[in-house]
Amino acid sequence: MVTPVSSEPRERRLPEPERIDDLVRRLRQVPDRQRRFSVTPAQARRVHGIRPELLAALTAAGVPHLGVGDARLYDAYDLGNAALHLGRLSVQSRSMRSWAKAWQTALDQAPGHRVQVLSACPAPGHPGTCRYGVLLGGRRRRVEGPATEARLGELRPAPVTRDWPELPSDLRELLQEVEGVGFFLLPEAVRWDPEFMWRTRMSDCGGAAAWLVHEGGRRGLRSRFSFGLLVAAPYSTPHCWAEFLVDGVWVPVDPLLARALNQWGGLDPGAFPPDNTPGALFHRLTDRFTKVVSHDGIWAQVSLPTERAD
Questions:
Q1: Nearest alpha carbon to residue 245 among 227, 228, 221
Q2: Do strands 73-75 and 37-39 pair parallel, antiparallel, or not at all (unpaired)?
Q3: Which of 43, 160, 201, 295 sits most deeply, having the most CB atoms within 10 A of its CB?
Q4: Is 101 helix (H, G, I), strand (E, B) or coil?
């Protein structure tokens, strides 16, 4: 007997119920008090690629929400994770593909980039001009600008052309310890909590980086936390990673990112294993998690349009 193969695009086919149930079970490990119910069904489809049939299946499986029918509201982290883990064509999956392409390109060509820093006032309507604080060149600089479409500066990350030193065995063993931790988009209140990471086996790159730096230091490895940009056209993004001193060189490591790009970005796991350094993608700004742009002490949203500067 031949099982018929559906000609429907993968993004339109419903995943197996067991797969949906397992994902929702994992998502519900995030406390409800950390959720912000703000995403409508229309936004779920437009931003996350979650069509009504899949949203109904997620809802039936118990994904948290408020309201009923078309008035239901969902959490953006829940839907972003559902889009990734269930293979939808979404903002998140497109980003993964662009990062994977940038990593592959950087190894062959090491292109330079021009990154524009754009922002907008988080509290419009106040008197006077907006006073932004922009993280440029390792320090926060004061820049006055308009309330909307404020062009606050430009970064030119130098292309990374070096060969990275081989990681020692004790560092490789440390990286292997997070092999069973899955990549998830997480709210601030739990993303930095190591107890949550090990209990749920869920983390993002920042939470995993913080644990690697702490645990690496405890084991006698020279380590440091890094915050900066993951540089890729058409948009760069703020990012966190760990670095370890190997043969006098600070080597970036990010095993969760590497596995995510293997799974959703199309990178070959054989050529880009989790213990391979993605340093060619990164531009370091500081040694702590912060925002690229602030506004009178309030964190402001940032957009980082990026183009190659060959």
A1: 221
A2: antiparallel
A3: 295
A4: helix
Q: What is the pLDDT of residues 92-151, one digit of tens each?
A: 999 999 999 999 988 777 778 999 999 999 999 999 899 999 998 778 999 999 999 999
Q: Which residues on neighbouring strands pair with residue 237, listed in sequence order?
A: 230
Q: Which domains does the chain have, with CATH numbers?
A: 10-89 (no CATH), 111-310 (3.10.620)
The pTM score is 0.92
Phi, psi angles (nearest 5°) of residue 37:
-85, 100
Q: Are 118 and 302 in contact (CB under 8 A)?
A: yes
How far apart CA 141 and CA 133 sit, in angstroms, is: 5
| Residues 132, 150: Cα–Cα separation, whole Å | 9
Task: Name the helix (H) or strand (E) containing 146.
Answer: none
Residue 89 structure tokens: 């064509």
End-to-end, the C-alpha distance of the chain in Å comes to 56
Residue 163 burial (CB < 10 Å; 0-12/13-18/19+)?
Answer: exposed
* Element at 238 (helix H, strand E): strand 237-246
